[in-house]
Amino acid sequence: MKDIYPGFPVQRLRRLRENAVLRQMVRENHLSPEDLIYPLFVIPGENRSNPISSMPGVSQLTIDLLVKEAIDAYQVGVKAVEIFGIPPEKDEIASGAYDPNGIVQEAVRALKKACPDLYVITDVCLCQFTNHGHCGIVEEGKILNDPSLDYLARTALSHAQAGADMVAPSDMMDGRVAAIRKALDENGFDHIPIMSYSAKYASSFYGPFREAAESAPQWGDRRTYQMDASNSEEALRETALDIQEGADIVMVKPGMAYMDIVRRLKDTFGLPVAVYNVSGEYAMVKAAAEKGWIHEKRIVLELLLSFKRAGADLIITYHAKDAVRWMKEQA
């Protein structure tokens, strides 16, 4: 037996696994409630909840119900939310995105009034607010990069003016972080961080989100501005540019199929890295759990821990509220 490998039997790795307390003591990565951000969808009206058919347990909520859900999550232990708004009307220039009294702006004010300590992040994009469903201004069927930057900056500024604690541009237009940083700084919001969707891929995992945010493109797709799933070096270039422009946190989206990108960004840049555990990933887990094919609690906690192991500091996930409850049960 001594010849099995050098060091055996002196080195027995199972010694550190024999006892549950010791396993906790030597655990390399830990998942905590502070790691999680809870995405929420807000719609106009009152006392209305629209369940998302492809995302069991997730609904579009009017502001009154959104506040209740956010407070419930906060009391459970979720300290941060990210808000996605669906306006009453859409147009070609995404007017509702930067309207001071728009759906996101009103939701932010209501959340900060009801629960001041809740950390409120806002998605900064135009796709939910345009009648064509693209993330920028369109002319003659082409998504225009530079003209879109002003609209994105105006949107981010309006969110900060409403009381948002952080803005998160998800559009993937070149130069948008610099435009947003400039607008915030020039208007007295130099303290507001930017969490940039730096490596956002043109992914098939977004399907259920398009239903939830009512943001599916009316024509074409988003491959001209979201990244090709084949590329990883490009993710480094995108992230480096966002950091140069003033991003405080960088993000990888989606999560499960892109953990190599999470690790590369963390190892290369050392900044806080967020990962978005997206709608399609959530839907697959929920569907398998409903069929009884998997143990939902164990799968979810293992999945979220795997993001931490890959290098993520923050995890945006629809599982957030359940996951925090389950963590407390294990404590």
From TrEMBL:
The active site is at K200, K253. Its EC number is 4.2.1.24. Pathway: Porphyrin-containing compound metabolism; protoporphyrin-IX biosynthesis; coproporphyrinogen-III from 5-aminolevulinate: step 1/4. 5-aminolevulinate 1 binds at R210, R222. Its cofactor is Zn(2+). Keywords: Heme biosynthesis, Lyase, Magnesium, Metal-binding, Porphyrin biosynthesis, Zinc. Pfam families: ALAD. InterPro entries: ALAD (IPR001731), ALAD_AS (IPR030656), Aldolase_TIM (IPR013785). It catalyses: 2 5-aminolevulinate = porphobilinogen + 2 H2O + H(+). It is an enzyme of class 4 (lyase). GO terms for biological process: protoporphyrinogen IX biosynthetic process. 5-aminolevulinate 2 binds at S279, Y318. Catalyzes an early step in the biosynthesis of tetrapyrroles. Binds two molecules of 5-aminolevulinate per subunit, each at a distinct site, and catalyzes their condensation to form porphobilinogen. Belongs to the ALAD family. This is Delta-aminolevulinic acid dehydratase.
